[in-house]
Amino acid sequence: MKNPTWQRDELILALDLYFQLEPGQIHGRNPQVEELSELLNQLPIHARELRNKKFRNANGVGLKLSNFLAIDPGYTGKGMRRFGKRDQNVFQEFAHDRERLHRIAGQIRQAVGNEELVDQLYQIQDEEDLTPLWQVQEGKVLYKLHKLRERDQSIIYEKKELVFQEMGCLICEACAFDFERTYGKLGHRFIECHHTTPLALSSETRITKLEELALVCANCHRMLHRKISDLTVPGLRALVMERRKGA
Looking at residue 95, what DSSP letter applies? Predict the structure, then answer.
């Protein structure tokens, strides 16, 4: 069985290690490469049944790191030139932003270090959200972690009740869309909830506060998820207002 294509999370972890090694250390016998192989086998991305002895084994991980050698303009050798477009894109994105690369890699490692959390993340199917997961900056693992936090129905209900009592309606905080005004009774008290705390400041054990939740329509919610770490609700609201002025 052919190993599945490397996903963004895996490439982020691999590139983070690549920048920590010398070219001569890039091989399957390196303990750090072996450790990364074990970590990749724990990521809640690929189906568990796809994992065999060859799945992200140390030799395969070493070859992937050698792909980065071929991409790296600072390396005078050849490296393994059978790299893919994703390898190249991730390298170019983070080559001059290694601090962000290391931060995201650390967050992925932290999430995977909790076995119970990994099982929960596996239960969040990719099809649950239509956002192309390759476009999510943090990768699939942290995207699923964000979605998991937004599943706490008790605090979502509390947030909606508080806003409804204060305003008498539930409108999108980004674009002001009102479901009830558009759909009548069908849209009564309906709206989605977005977790606004940056992933870099959060952890799986952190208790969500009401002020960290924003009520948004489905469209704005998807836009926020496309740039989870960078786009805030006020930022999206400003973007919407700017576009409306120019219409």
Answer: T
Residue with tokens 């790191």: 65
206 torsion bin: left (phi>0), alpha (psi -120 to 50), beta (else): beta
Query: Which residue from 197, 10, 208, 191 is spatially nearest to 112, judged by alpha carbons?
Result: 10
One-character DSSP codes across 24-54: GG-STTSHHHHHHHHHHTT-SSS-GGG--TT
- Separation between Cα atoms, residue 83 and residue 64, nearest integer Å: 8
Q: Where are the alpha helices (DSSP H) in 79-173?
A: 85-94, 98-112, 115-122, 140-149, 153-167
**pLDDT surpassing 80 at residue 246:** no
Contacts of 30 (CB under 8 A, 6+ apart): 21, 58, 62
State whether residue 215 is helix, strand or coil. strand
| CA distance linking residue 148 with residue 216, whole number of Å | 17
Which single residue is written with the structure tokens 């050849």? Answer: 78
Q: Which amino acid is at 128?
A: E
pLDDT of 129 strictly over 80: no
Q: Which two structure tokens, joined as six digits, stand for 177?
A: 């869309």
CA distance 73 to 165: 59
pLDDT, average across residues 43-49: 84
pLDDT digits (tens, 9 = 90+) for 55-77: 999 999 999 999 999 999 998 88
Q: Which one, of 51, 44, 204, lies nearest residue 121 by Cα?
A: 44
